[in-house]
Each structure stands twice: as C-alpha cells, then as structure tokens.
Amino acid sequence: xxxxxxxxxxxxxxxxxxxxxxxxxxxxxxxxxxxxxxxxxxxxxxxxxxxxxxxxxxxxxxxxxxxxxxxxxxxxxxxxxxxxxxxxxxxxxxxxxxxxxxxxxxxxxxxxxxxxxxxxxxxxxxxxxxxxxxxxxxxxxxxxxxxxxxxxxxxxxxxxxxxxxxxxxxxxxxxxxxxxxxxxxxxxxxxxxxxxxxxxxxxxxxxxxxxxxxxxxxxxxxxxxxxxxxxxxxxxxxxxxxxxxxxxxxxxxxxxxxxxxxxxxxxxxxxxxxxxxxxxxxxxxxxxxxxxxxxxxxxxxxxxxxxxxxxxxxxxxxxxxxxxxxxxxxx
Length: 331
Known about the structure:
This protein has helices at residues 2-33, 50-66, 81-88, 102-111, 119-122, 147-156, 171-183, 195-203, 214-222, 270-284, 287-295, 305-326, and strands at 39-43, 70-74, 96-101, 123-132, 134-139, 162-165, 188-191, 209-213, 226-231, 258-265, 299-300. It is of the alpha/beta class. The relative contact order is 0.17.
C-alpha cells in the first residue's frame, strides 16, 4: 500500500509540475519574445542633459537591434528623484527603463531623510553606461584664471558667490560642497533641472560659477564665453587635455566622476534584463557610438548588472561620509 501510495504521490507531483510548467509558459514565452512593443527610457532630467544625450545615442542603435522603437521620455524634478522614482514604481514588464545618475541612485538616499523610493531595492541594475568629468567654469569676463583664483575670490568676498548645479544631490552639487568644506569657503547652491539650464544661468550672470558635465560647458568654453578652470576627475581627460585636474589646481581631496546607469523596475524578468544588458554592451562597443560619445565628452563604460550593483554600493560607502562632513541635507 505504501508503494502504491508513493506511486500515486509521484504521479500527482508530476501533474502539479506539468501544470505549473504550463502556467509558466506564457510568461516565459513573453520574455523570450520580448520586445513586442516600444520600449520607454525615462530620463530624470531635462532635454539636453547628459543622460538625455546618452539615451538618444544609445536608443538610436538599440532600436534596430531590438526590433522596436526606443522612446525617450524626460521626467525632470527633485534632483532626478521624480523620474527615477517613477521607474522604481513602474510595472516590471520589460518596457520601462531609466538612465539615471549618482544623485538619485546613491547620494539622495543619504541626503533625504525619507526618499520616496529605494534605488537598491526597487530598481534592477542593467548596465553602467557612461562616465564623464565635471568641468568647473566661470564666465570669461569674471577675471578668474584658475581654481586658486576662484577660491581666493570666494574668501575675499564671502556671501557674494552662487553656483548652479544639475540638481540637489548631483555631483555638480556635492563636488562643490566638498570644495567648500576643504577650503573653508561659502557659496549658495542654486539647483537647475538640467546641465544646459545650469550653464545658461552662469552665462546670464545669475550664478558666478558651476562645475557641471563637460558636454554642457565645453562648447561655451570653445566659443570664448566661459573659462574652464579644472576637471573633477583624478587624472586629466584625454578629451580635454588642456584642462588641469583639481589635484593639479591645489585641491587633491576634491575628486569625483559623474556616471550614468541603465536600470529597470525590480522584478523585471531576468531574461529581459540579460538581453538588454547584452544589447547595451554591444552598442557601447560600436565605433560610431564611441565616437559620438567622445564628441560629447563621455566615456563608454558597460559591464554586467552585478558589476553595476557592486559599483552603486561602493559609491554609497564613498559618498556617505563625504555628505556627512559637508553637512548637506535636503529635508
């Protein structure tokens, strides 16, 4: 009797497994057939921002590879939190992604007492897409020739300097907060929804300096309207070899890289994440894509989802004490 019961038990288990497999088939088939409709990449900053530029470069090449249009949607606000949070709460169906940055993915988890989303739990890493140096700049008619000149002017005229950024918690914000801490200077932070807007404020004289992505400032530097004082990276950029680093300018502890990453809502099918990762990495290796990114002062990166997850955790460890020392908070 026990043998018969065992056989019947195995048969029942077999039927259950078969039923479960049949139930799983539509989801598996859907993942294998992905994509079946247009894909949306949300940019949590305004048009012309670095993530927006990168998304359009990648989207153009991803469209034929995926067989569906890749649509770019700008959702700026709250230092990148609006668009990033929107994707964190979106349906994990494989049709919504975000290209976000240091601030909303790492720094804002420290700056905000209660962020409306958790980037480490509600977003699934896909790939680290690109990196770039921020460039500290002033107007050409400001009478400032170097970072040392800028710091000296801030010390001589306290309370008379404002700086623009691409949003609260962005590298363009926290890099200057770190500079202020290390030099004992003061300047008022004025956040903007995108790097073009931050540069426009500088050109109009609404702020006295900015340290924002190179893609936004270098055209104005070449046109003679702005002066590049230093890059934020530890070594000189091959794309801007004439611009010194912060270390070369006398501020060795002020160093950072702006980065952009592609993520999806958590629980997005792993097959979809793997396919998108493969395609993004392949696109980043295309000579024409690398050339276009270099023309925008961006370095192609790439890598696996696990590498991006580790990178974000490492960034959190790096910036948490820096933010604490700077005293920067949002709410």
